[in-house]
Amino acid sequence: MGIGRLAVRNLVAYKRRVAGLVLAVVLGTAFLSGALILSDTVKSSITGLIRDNGAGTDVVVRNATDVTDEPGTTRAAIPGDTADLVRGVPGVAAAEPVVVGYGQLVGKDGDMLTGNGPRIAGNWVGDPALNPYTLAEGRAPQTPDEVVVDRASTEQGDLEPGDRITVLTPSPVPVTVVGVARFGDADAFGGSSYTGFTLEGALAHVARDPGQISSVSVRLDEGADQEAAAAAIQRVLPPGVQALPGSDATQEQVDAVSDGFLNIFRTFLSAFAAIALVVAAFSINHTFSVVTAQRMREAALLRALGASRRQIRSQAIGEAALIGVVASVVGLLAGLGLAAGLKAMFAAFGFAFPVDGLVFRAETAMIVLPVGIVVTILSALVPAVRGSRVPPIAALRTSAAESAGIPPMRTAAGAVLTAAGITLTILADDVWLLAAAALASLAGVLLVAPVVVRAVGGVITAPFRRLGAGPMLARGNVLRSPRRTAGAATAMFVGIAVVTVFAVFAASLKDGAAAETRDTIVGDVVIGGSSPAGWAGGGHSPELTRQAGELPGVETAVGMQQGNALLDGSSKTIVAADTSRLDAALDLGLDSGTATGLGTGGIAVSQPKAEDAGWKTGSPVEITYPDGARATLTVSGIYDRTTIVGDYLIDRQAWSPHAVTDVDALTVVALSPGASAAEVREAAEKVAVQYGNPPVEDRDGYVDSSMAMVDQFVTVVYVLLALALLIALGGIANTLSLAAHERRRELGLLRAVGAERGQVRASLRWESAYVAALGALTGLVLGAFLSWAAVSVLSGDQELPYVLPPLQLAVLFAAGTAGGLIAGTRPAARAAKMNILNAISAE
Fold it and tell me: What is the pTM of this model?
């Protein structure tokens, strides 16, 4: 019989043994498959929406200044008569002026309608070819106070034609809904909302300057060339205005989304898939090691019959390859279900994507299948080589059990690697050195783990001896074979270490951000910031800020706006505020100079960014505003605290004349001496009613609200990491099942001398719990140590405190131990039911 046929027969003969291996590979590859499928689906959906949005537009006329490549941003306005200039160009069939701006819908109950995309308002374009929206109900707007609203918003707000609502542009504008629109076949453009006015209404309410528009959408005569037409149009345009072929404009948006959000999202999911695969690899490796130890006699018999070491290795690797192929195919298909689950999970946590169905590309299979097969083969390689080296005579004389001894060379190598890892961790000052330190520490701990089990395991498990025969027998089994115990705990150890690093880093980041926010805000009341308008954020009218500043008991109210500009030629996100009164609302922790009274010629910069750029107080900075205007600003101050104003701060006097929108993202209210914060907050809430009820909170309430979004993100990560722990528990269950099979004679003798089935079950379940607890405890210790360095290195410019979250870590340890106890339930039950006589007669 050939080695290949023997490998197939072995897999068929040991179905239960194979099932655990297959499950580990399936879970790891399913996560990778699901991550790729979901990211491809999101990319296909979003880019499809973008292409649909520009499908009928042959040429786009817009402001030539580009200050950011962030998707979804609007360029500065252009002259309102630009459309008339374009209409006179030969080959132009239609040229429609387009106004696009901020437009937050407020429902009939007075609260903002939420969403996961921009809040868009503009003019309803009459040419169907140039308007991606189509009327589903009602009619187009005819007067300035009539609007068309996307169907998703009407369903959320229970709106219908004839309803009277408010649109914040950002000032409140009472309007009547006269039509319901759809974006192609979708109810909305992704998670965004859309409010369509007449052109007159959009110029009056949405445009910052009634004499300017956002762009011109051009439809050409049939058969006209886009590039040639764009060049002809460009010749009639004033300076600072650009004509771009519609296909180029669409591709520009697609590239911005692909290179930005979609790339980050794919990398984010792939990182967790890699973690799951690594944990699966350790689980597979240990299972193969146990299987190899149990099959020494079989290998020896094959050697005695003439099989070479190479053939023995080939048989083991062939079995691994077959398992890898089958499991990877199953995992690839299971990824479809996992992708659907991930999509639902993100939606449940407020990260809904504009996704219908799932996209399965051939490239996904070309990635998942080789990765799954290679990981499985590599995981089996060392056990296969070890099994082929056992002398036939020695293997025939042994019981085929794995040696309980701990090779001194292994322990010495582990000690050296652990010491090197600790040293590198202490010295780490960048991500790459930290990664090398983590790998060295991980490898070292894995090598010395059997010694740790023997030294620490007895102490940890000693108190449980008094609980009965089950815990006592389990303790003996764990300590008798420390290499096997350490191997079984490896996957749990790695998984818990990764989760611990993230938990500690997240707790440190949250604690540091919360503390800095409290130190930065010296005002007593905060309006906005944690907008109910969804993850896309929101804002409120500067008029609300002005009215809040006039309330009794208020010393000043400082509103902050956010936008993009070019600083010395590089795109930066900046914050603009009324800096003449900034010190009453914020304490930025100045290093030098001042951030107050910046006027039209000053800029304040965070200390790390100033150091990177070589700026000091008095340094000149060239700024290009969104409308193309240029100026030279002087660095007036350098500060440390960035949680509220970011890295670049200028005055509203400098920003407002050039801004695309006029929306305050946040307002900090400082009280007069002796004023009641509760009374001012109540008064501010009454004023905020007409502006869609943005949140009005005291300082501590604002900090808690802003950290709530961090908590949501952290929860998502915990859910993703839970799969790695599930794989680890599966490895423990599989190892326990194999160990029970190996110890049939021992278990049979226990039953023969009077042990009850319940005692046998208890001993194996406790053994599983011990293994999980040892793995979890070791992972917690290593993870806590590595996270100490991670907090320092990954926090970058922001110094963070090192915070150990005791509750999360206790829950993590308890969950790992309890999971181990549950994982051992089925193998223990099966072992307790074995026939006593058959077990005693087993070799």
Answer: 0.80
CA distance from start to end of the chain? 25
φ and ψ at 192, to 5 degrees? -85, 165
What's the one-letter identity of residue 703?
Answer: V
Whose structure tokens read 């290593």? 782
What SS3 class is residue 308? coil
Residue 677: exposure state from Cβ atoms within 10 A (0-12, 13-18, ≥19):
middle
Q: For residues 436 and 416, what is the distance between their CA atoms, to the nearest angstrom?
A: 14
- 712 and 660: one domain? no
**How many residues are listed for the chain in this entry?**
843
Cα separation, 708 vs 1, whole angstroms:
64
Burial of residue 163, with CB atoms counted within 10 A of its CB: 0-12 exposed, 13-18 middle, 19 or more buried: middle
- 617 is written with which tokens? 């107080």
> What is the residue type of 820?
G
Beta strands in 578-725 (DSSP E): 590-593, 602-606, 620-624, 630-639, 648-651, 666-671, 696-698
CA-to-CA dists, residue 106 to 171, 176, 195, 681, 702, angstroms? 12, 12, 11, 22, 22
Give residue 104's domain range: 56-243
- Of 243, 260, 290, the residue that ends a domain is 243
SS3 133: strand
Report if residue 315 sits inside a domain.
Answer: no
**Among 257, 212, 248, residue whose Cα is nearest residue 117:** 257
| Regions of the chain where pLDDT drops below 70 | 1-17, 20, 71-72, 290-307, 349-352, 354-355, 386-406, 457-480, 530-538, 731-762, 796-798, 824, 826-843
Cα–Cα distances (Å) from 335 to 231, 359, 669, in that order, read 48, 11, 50
The residues with which 561 forms a beta bridge, in sequence order, are 576
**744/675 Cα distance (integer angstroms):** 79
Query: In the structure encoding, which two tokens stand for residue 403, read together?
Result: 């040696």
- Residue 460, Cβ density class (10 Å: 0-12 exposed, 13-18 middle, ≥19 buried): middle
pLDDT in tens, 445-489: 878 877 777 777 666 666 666 666 556 666 666 666 777 777 777
186 φψ region: left (φ > 0), alpha (ψ -120 to 50), beta (else): beta
Tokens of 341: 């689950």
Domain boundary among 672, 700, 728: 700
Amino acid at 24: A
Query: In total, how many domains does the chain have?
Result: 3
- Residues 800, 758 within the same domain: yes
| 688 and 706 housed in the same domain | no
Whether 188 maps to a domain, the answer reads yes
Query: 536 and 653 share a domain?
Result: yes
